[in-house]
Amino acid sequence: MTFVRFFYSFLLIFCFANSTTISAQANTLIMGRITGNKTGMIELHVNQQFLNGAIDSYQSNILEDGTFMLGAELNTNQLVYLDYSRNKAPLYLEPGDTLIVNFEATNFQYSFTFDGSAAGNNEVLYNYLKEYPTETNRFKMLQYRRGTFWYDCDPKMDNMMQDNSPAKFTSKLDLRKESTFNLVDFTLKNNPTKITRGFQDYMEAEAMYLNAYHKLLYGHIYKNKYKLDDSFFTFLEEVPVQNEAIGNFWYRQFLLAFCNHNSENFDVKEKTYTEQYDFANNRLERGAKRFVQSEILVNALRGKTINQISDSYRDFVLTNELYHFHQKVINQYDKSIKYMAGSKAPDFSLTEQSGKIVNLKDYQGKVVYLNFWASWCAPCMNKMERMQSLQSGINNSSVVFLNVSLDREKEAWQKTLAKKNFIGVHVWADGNIDSAIAKDYQIKILPQYYIIDKNGRFAEKPASFDLIEIQNKLSQLSTL
Q1: What whole-number distance in Å separates Cα of residue 270 and Cα of residue 248?
Q2: Is residue 307 classed as helix, strand or coil in its secondary structure?
Q3: How many whole angstroms separate alpha carbon 209 and alpha carbon 177?
Q4: Which of 390, 351, 365 is nearest to 457 (CA)?
Q5: How is 453-469 classified by DSSP, letter by letter?
Q6: How far apart (Å, rounded) are the C-alpha atoms in residues 459 and 469?
Q7: Strand 78-84 relative to strand 41-48: parallel, antiparallel, unpaired?
Q8: What is the reported pLDDT for 324?
Q9: pLDDT for residue 454
Q10: Tens digits of per-residue pLDDT, 260-279?
Q11: Within 13 A of 174's CA, how many CA atoms are on the CB side?
Q12: pLDDT score, position 308
């Protein structure tokens, strides 16, 4: 059966048998068949956070014969993630694509075969990912902070940085870049119609900006160890800052790291945000400029620096011509107002190890130190251990230390508590980063904490994680 005949017969059968209606707004179709002992649903996740601050999710039932169909709305060329039985696999899609993905239920991702208009792009993508696997769980990424920017780093890349001198590390990165370019060139030479121009641009951006981003990260982390001076960063002169591949993750990360690299006011966070906003205004254009400015404003608003960046916020609202970036900033402004000191903290209901149900409202009349952590997060564990002495020192019945674990597995949380004997109230949020409480409290990175006063409202937090300042704040609130 030809692909066209298969497509239309499949579409009619699927919609009739499943009573599923594909949204009229869907401009991209993903369908396929699962063989073997299939279970549950299949999902597609489209990361639109860099555009409008949302992750769009689409679900499909799996019919008795293993077939499924998903319709999605895409705004740009990008990776999306197919999620089946708690396994995630990246796919490359462009608006208007049709992709057929067939696989075995017990060998997800590694048994993929492709058909449809996007088949060639994804075959090449998977050859690339076999050589350079990518970490899909953001919580497993290591993070390094410089100024207002948090670098994400894959554990394997982090090991490569630790094990190599500047010359060896940059050489290995350059070999990977060259290998990626060669993969695209080889494909075009042997089958010019196999991949689209959009995918070619995407992979070239992948090679170029992954390279530049990690060189920037390396230069900042190991600057003192290897006594690196400004000459190490001369590679930036060869990296084109302006590109249309805004759907590429590494291009977006590079843009933010590049603007952060050019900041000079790291000692004053509010000035840094304004400086980076103006830098993007002068150096970037179109989607690249609006993406960077929207991210800067969102981060500033999350940091509760609304008054300090008001001029930049006003400029963006009045001049931004790309609405999808506009909405993200407006939404964050509304959220920041909601989470400012004096705003009501969202209630929640979670379970302790003993099975007791814990609600935030149960602690009305007490000050709550609300801590978000996970056992795999080294900074979280460090702060939890440091907080033990503070908790013992306060010993005040008016202060509650409530710790919410975002561990993926409940057993990992229980094992850590048994080993460490952390004091305080401990609950587990099923769903980790996707749990309701993580979304309600805007937990994007770990560790994170809030202080909630006796009336159940957010209180001002100290500017830095200083035990003395936190202790003074908690003691002050408990006496009011």
Answers
A1: 28
A2: coil
A3: 9
A4: 365
A5: -TTSBB-PPPSS--HHH
A6: 13
A7: antiparallel
A8: 84
A9: 94
A10: 999 866 565 667 889 999 99
A11: 8
A12: 78
Nearest-angstrom CA–CA distance, 434 and 408: 10
- Token pair belonging to 81: 């993630």
Look-up of token digits 């999710």: 57
For the chain, the distance separating the N- and C-terminal CA atoms, rounded to the nearest angstrom, is 76
- Identify the residue whose tokens are 């075959």: 123
295, 288, 286: which is closest to 319 by C-alpha?
286
Helix ranges restricted to H, 305-409:
310-319, 323-338, 378-394
DSSP 8-state symbol, 89: E
Alpha helix positions (H), 421-462? 436-440
Residue 35 CA to residue 18 CA, distance in Å, equals 18
CA distances from 435 to 242, 303, 412 (A): 37, 22, 17
How many whole angstroms separate alpha carbon 399 and alpha carbon 422?
16
Separation CA 380–CA 406 (nearest Å): 11
pLDDT computed for residue 8 by the predictor:
42
Token pair in block for residue 303: 């940091």
Nearest to residue 403, comparing CAs of 373, 434, 379?
373
How do 54-61 and 399-405 pair as beta strands? unpaired
pLDDT digits (tens, 9 = 90+) for 387-406: 888 887 776 788 999 999 99
Beta bridge partners of 103: 34
Q: Kindly give the residue spans of alpha helices, DSSP state H, lying in 103-196.
A: 119-131, 155-163, 166-190
Amino acid in position 16: F
| Structure tokens belonging to residue 187 | 């494909």
455 phi/psi in degrees, rounded to 5: -95, 10
Does pLDDT of 342 surpass 80? yes
Burial of 308 (0-12, 13-18, 19+ CB in 10 A): middle
Question: Could you give the domains of the chain?
Answer: 3-118 (2.60.40.1120), 138-338 (no CATH), 349-478 (3.40.30.10)
Share above pLDDT 70 across residues of the chain, in percent, rounded to a whole number: 91
Which residues have C-beta within 8 Å of that of residue 334, sequence separation ≥ 6? none
CB 257 within 8 A of CB 149: yes
Whole-Å CA distances, 152 to 166, 227, 363: 19, 23, 36
Residue 242 corresponds to which tokens in the numbers above?
């302006």
Give 151's Cβ-side CA count (13 Å radius): 26
Q: Do the beta carbons of residue 90 and residue 121 sit within 8 Å? A: no
* 307, burial (CB in 10 Å: exposed 0-12, middle 13-18, buried 19+): exposed
Label residue 1 by pLDDT band (50, 70, 90). Answer: very low
E strand spans, 125-268: 142-146, 149-153
Cα-Cα-Cα-Cα dihedral of 254, 323, 337, 401, to 10°? -40
- Reported as a pLDDT band with limits 50, 70 and 90, residue 304 is low
Kindly give the interhelix angle for 197-221 and 155-163, rounded to the nearest 10 degrees: 50
